[in-house]
Design goal:
The chain is α/β, with parallel strands linked by helices and 556 residues long. Strand 10 and strand 11 form a beta hairpin. The strands form 4 sheets. Strands 1, 2, 3, 4, 5, 6, 7 and 8 form an 8-stranded mixed beta sheet that branches. The chain starts with 13 loop residues before the first helix and ends in a 16-residue tail after the last helix. Helix 4 packs parallel to helix 6, helix 14 runs parallel beside helix 16 and helix 18 crosses helix 19.
């Protein structure tokens, strides 16, 4: 079995650990949301321009939440060039005139809004969310274009900068509204983004051109002023590129809001047409149920009932395949189907080998056994048949290993579950509450399996295997290499090597590491889980199309 022993009883520090980690999360969020810092924000104000987050605040409806996405993009990356806080871009879903819109705003306080590799990936992920959910998009453009020292990592590949314009075109073809407001620089290839939108607004003092004055002079020897080359007046009166010219940010944002209010509302998704009035969930502090360090066992049914309407939960096959809990419920009035890792230790009844009666075995919570995989695969097909969105609560160690498990067909049964997850046609939302290890990540709808939204709690741990198991494996590899080189390490060197390997791996286990690389859409507080799922379903509801379910070759 995986290198995880059964969970030990909770220790008194578990709640205080949550308090410490939530405070750390808030501090880290505040730091990355500061962008390029106070001086850079002041320079933006001196140009009579708002910062990206100020623009988003004025754009969204008063009092409505802005669900920021990918806040930690680029966290800890590019430090040799000063970093790229939040990927130099603010993205998220906000209510504009009572309707959810995807908002993508360049942060000019970070390297003049230039695109780093992670910036392009963040914008592409935001556009992909909009495309899959038919969310209308507002782009607030203020960017110097590609960060040239890293152009080879930004420019050429399938999921690099050019994909932004591809998705522009694809959304337009599907009739998904896109509004762009140029509120600063818009240079080089980036100039295509706003021009490919339905509507283009530009403020006075902004610049829109394929090549700025310096590059034009270098390329063709022509000397031209910025305003004549690509100013708002030129594009409004001469080139005809701009639809609306506005004097400043405030007027541009007011224009965006006025136009957004005119767009027709399409049909809702089939599942959303079965929405009922919201019933409050039972009041419970989820951090008192789930320990931060995973040291406490808990019944995931209690977690499910803490976030569902009225605590209602219709469990599917409750006595079979117990390490995965499946069932139907409602959240925010929407019907939902849960697949969740059970975290209790289970005494499993088994048929005896050729002898009458039953015998038992202990099953460890968080591990996926063959019968659990069978049950979940079947349930996922049921949810698709019913047209009900799936919510995965992921706290998974991995699939069971060993002689008995292999002889029971764990690979075949696990493949069936992965097939079912892969071919879903209903929206899928994943919340990683604890471990997300190895193939368990795949079975529980990890990023590779196209979740509409994927969030992590601060307690999430994201890797091929646990820290201890990985450190031991990597240490063995290093020790073997040293022995081959004629330098077998002594005990002190072994401990130092282990500590170095463990420290590196623990850093990579942290959800910020995953969030910085966009493996999760954001890190959320446990007690915000219900609200974030409801608003994610609000977004999913905007797409009325559901494909036909096909699973291809399905293992039996």
């Amino acid at each position: 079995m995986p290198d995880h022993s059964p969970s030990a009883p909770a220790h008194p520090a578990s709640v205080s650990t949550w308090a410490t980690e939530l405070a750390r999360l808030a501090a880290d969020q505040q730091k990355v949301r500061a962008g390029g810092g106070a001086k850079a924000q002041q320079r933006q104000h001196e140009k009579n321009r708002l910062t990206a987050r100020e623009r988003v605040g004025q754009l969204c409806d008063d009092g409505a939440p802005f669900d920021e996405l990918m806040t930690f993009a680029g966290y800890g990356m590019y430090e040799e060039v000063g970093g790229c806080p939040s990927g130099g871009t603010v993205t998220g879903i906000g209510m504009v005139q009572g309707r959810p819109w995807m908002i993508i705003a360049n942060d000019a306080t970070v390297k003049a809004g230039a695109f780093f590799p992670i910036t392009a990936k963040k914008v592409i992920r935001a556009q992909t969310i909009a495309l899959e959910n038919h969310l209308p998009v507002i782009y607030l453009v203020d960017s110097a274009g590609v960060y040239l020292p890293m152009q080879d990592e930004i420019f050429p590949d399938q999921d690099d900068f050019g994909r932004v314009f591809y998705l522009n075109a694809r959304m337009s073809a599907l009739g998904i509204p896109q509004i762009a407001a140029i509120m600063g620089n818009c240079v080089a290839g980036g100039a295509y983004l706003p021009v490919m939108c339905d509507t283009l607004i530009m403020t006075e003092g902004s610049g829109l051109y394929l090549a700025g004055p310096a590059l034009v002079k270098a390329a063709i020897g022509q000397v031209v002023e910025s305003e004549e080359l690509g100013g708002a007046s030129m594009h409004s009166a001469i080139a005809g590129t701009v639809d609306y010219k506005e004097p400043d940010d405030q007027h541009a944002l007011a224009r965006v809001r006025a136009l957004a209010d005119l767009y027709a509302q399409g049909e809702l998704a089939p599942f959303a047409r079965r929405r009922k009035d919201t019933v409050p969930a039972p009041q419970r502090d989820l951090t008192s149920l789930v320990s931060f360090d995973g040291s406490k066992t808990y019944d995931v049914r209690d977690l499910i009932k803490s976030i569902t309407d009225g605590g209602e939960f219709h469990e599917f096959k409750p006595e079979y395949g117990e390490t995965l809990v499946c069932g139907f419920s409602r959240i925010g009035g929407y019907p939902v189907a849960f697949v969740a890792n059970q975290r209790t230790v289970i005494k499993k009844k088994l048929k005896s080998g050729g002898e009458p009666g039953l015998r038992t075995r202990i099953e460890v919570g968080g591990v996926i056994y063959g019968d659990s995989a069978d049950k979940a695969a079947r349930f996922i097909l049921d949810a698709n048949q019913a047209g009900v969105p799936l919510v995965f609560l992921s706290d998974v160690t991995g699939f069971m290993v060993g002689r008995d498990s292999e002889q029971e067909g764990i690979i075949r049964r696990g493949a069936k579950l992965v097939n079912a997850v892969s071919n879903c046609v209903v929206p899928k939302i994943t919340i990683i509450t604890g471990g997300s290890f190895g193939a368990g990540n795949y079975a529980m709808n990890g990023k590779a399996y196209a979740p509409r939204f994927i969030y992590a709690w601060p307690s999430a741990k994201y890797a091929v295997m646990s820290g201890n198991a990985a450190a031991k494996t990597l240490l063995d590899i290093q020790v073997a290499a040293l022995k081959r080189a004629g330098h077998p390490p002594d005990d002190e060197e072994l401990q130092k090597l282990y500590d170095e390997v463990k420290a590196k791996y623990d850093t990579e286990l942290d959800p910020r590491y995953a969030a910085s690389r966009l493996w999760v859409d954001d890190i959320i507080e446990p007690n915000d889980t219900r609200d974030r799922i409801i608003r994610a379903l609000d977004a999913c509801a905007q797409n009325p199309r559901q494909e036909e379910l096909k699973v291809g070759v399905f293992q039996v």
